[in-house]
Amino acid sequence: MDFFEAVEQRQSIRAFESRPVEEEKLRKILETANAAPSAGNLQAYEIYVVRKRQDRAALARAALHQDFVASAPVVLVFCTHPARSSGKYGARGARLYSVQDATIACAFAMLAVTSLGLASVWVGAFRDEGVREALRLSDDLQPVALLPVGYPAESPERAERRTLADLVHEV
User: Fold this and answer.
1) pLDDT tens string 108-158
2) In angstroms, rounded to a whole number, what is the distance separating the alpha carbons of residues 149 and 71?
3) Distance CA 78, CA 143 (A)
4) How far apart are the C-alpha atoms of 116 and 129, rounded to whole Å?
């Protein structure tokens, strides 16, 4: 699948088949996330791969009981690592650039997921402390996105997007 097809076909899927994601596909997704641009190439983020049922269930509870999180065979959790950025960029690096780094990596992962025939959904609604407990995160990491990944068990209608005339402003 080419890039534009992956962008066009990507959509949020909240129902997953129970079959596992193949290791080679997961590795390709992680390699793609790792290729994402980052401020100063500092890659101020960490990715946690969550496969154990009890850990996925804990993430679903932390995600305000969004049970589809637990139904995905794997959940990728993207966390900021502010200290990797703050040495070069100070407070702005810690506060903003590390968040941008993690979210860009997650977006790259989502496109890789789609191009491999898998599905995902960005989950940003969660209790930080619940995710922190589920993953046993150190205090210096901040979770910013959960990405359940698996084979789709649904095919929802495509959501409408804003028109370019409404979205784009030329100055």
Assistant:
1) 999 999 999 999 999 999 999 999 999 999 999 999 999 999 999 999 999
2) 9
3) 6
4) 32
The pair of structure tokens assigned to 25 is 């596909």
DSSP assignment, residue 94?
A: I
Chain centre to alpha carbon of residue 124: 9
In angstroms, the first-to-last Cα distance of the chain is 35
Bridge partner residues of 166 (DSSP): none
Q: What is the phi/psi pair of residue 65, to 5°? A: 65, 35
Percent pLDDT > 90 in the chain is 98
Domains of the chain: 20-153 (3.40.109.10)
**Separation CA 118–CA 1 (nearest Å):** 12
